[in-house]
């Protein structure tokens, strides 16, 4: 029953959101969705989750990313239900190293027509991937990302360098 109510709320809210994604604060559609995402994450994963996407004033409205315990990476939110199949979007955010919380600037460019995404983090590290539906898979390492919110307003995901232990696990998020 709870899932049906949540899906109904999500459908109504996403239908009424503007392309700007709303604004943070009480009473806004985006702010209400963000609160619901936070509650869902805490219900699903408990209080052991360390939410990294809320570490600054630049809150995400449709998604959260973080770590459970010492090593389980989480990207959670309201995934985009209708993806564009043309156009280019640029996202700015952060890439966070799981082992020590070190944050690196992130810039991503999604080319929806070519179903391709390029990401640069720490100003010189490059990754690329394939977009499929509302998700993308990296060509390098082992990682997955997702598009969140109406018109793919946000991205989030996780990435692990193959063959390397925990110190090469990352979570990330970005906004248009």
TrEMBL record:
Protein name: Transferrin-binding protein B C-lobe/N-lobe beta barrel domain-containing protein
Residues annotated as signal peptide: 1-21
Lineage: Bacteria, Pseudomonadati, Pseudomonadota, Gammaproteobacteria, Pasteurellales
SUPFAM superfamilies (alphabetical): OMPA-like
Keywords, in A-Z order: Signal
